[in-house]
Amino acid sequence: MAEFFPDVPKIRYGGPTSKNPLEFKHYNPDEVVAGKTMRDHLRFSVVYWHTFTNPLSDPFGVGTAVRPWDDGTKTVENAQRRVRAAFEFFEKLGVPYYAFHDRDVAPEGASLKETNAILDQVVKVLKEEQQRTGVKLLWGTANLFSNPRYMHGAATSPHLDSFAFAAAQVKKAMEVTLELGGEGYTFWGGREGYSTLLNTDLKRELDHLGRFLHMAVDYKKSIGFTGQFYIEPKPKEPTKHQYDSDAAACLNFLRQYNLLDHFKLNLETNHATLAGHEMMHEMVTAIAAGALGSIDANTGDPLLGWDTDQFPTSVYLTAQCMGCILDMGGFTTGGVNFDAKVRRESFEPIDLFYAHIGGMDAFARGLKIADALRRDGRLSQFLAQRYRSWDSDLGRKIEAGQTGFADLETYILAKGDVAPMESGRQELLENIVNEFI
Fold it and tell me: Is the pLDDT of residue 302 over 90?
């Protein structure tokens, strides 16, 4: 079979001095950092949707993407050919994982029955390619936002038939994910929210979403799927407000509906930005709840108010991300998933390689910087020193719930006032980080 990327060799590590755009400068998969290889720390994944089905259109113009393997038809044959191209890309890039929506890999038919049959034909090729290359499925998901049937939402739709269709679609997507050995399954509420509360029964919609996810948990158990469930927060776009708006909102929802034992969060930088947060904030919020499972590797343009899904190039960003991952002991599920797309002007197939190579190098640098900062120890020492008063007998009693207001009043009356506080030294700490960038 002819190659889809005949001019691209397998991407190899060339080192920091390499000028070859088709070599890694920093990502050396077998290099050991903090006790594990880069491959095992980063667990890179390529997304099917942005990489192989995104035409690079925008509200002001049609798609520009040149994809020689794709004839633009909605046929099974075209979808199967796209699979072969995708796995050649994964193999040459050297990533261990990929991720997909059901509608990325296979088009819809005239009915759910026909759609499922089409998906089965494509899954057969996906399975063949996974076995041939060793590339694995990080997680699967269902597209519950593109079809007009979901214009009012899916699990939160005011129309029962849309809810039921979504349930049937997720059921099939979960079965396919299990068949392909997927290590997880993600729920992203692309239209689970509202544009106006004038036509929205918010409580009822949230109750329906909770019920939907409980049914998913029940079905997961019934088919023996042991992969991790994820929820991916996003605050807006296309709705004015989405119910999974940020990490804290998702955690509150999961607690309210008794689902926290069944879900972790898949966090994305661009979504954090739209929510008015830094990615590090979202990550430490999830980690504090024991609920960080995976991350989507991208970034947004701070001057644009929408989800631009650009490839990550900021080493500050990747060092913060990997510092959080190292602090929590590394990934036990999930990985670094490139939910990112090339720019509309970067329309040639070779640009897909340039973009992913750059993103992988940025995260490799971030990993090495995060490890160096941890070994240096000054940041952690400062943090321990800043909170040292809480390591006193009284501090431990407060944290253990063994004292109350009356005891604390007695303590302060004896002291008379609060002693002068110490500087937070933000600038000093930022200078320390800059030493390693």
Answer: no
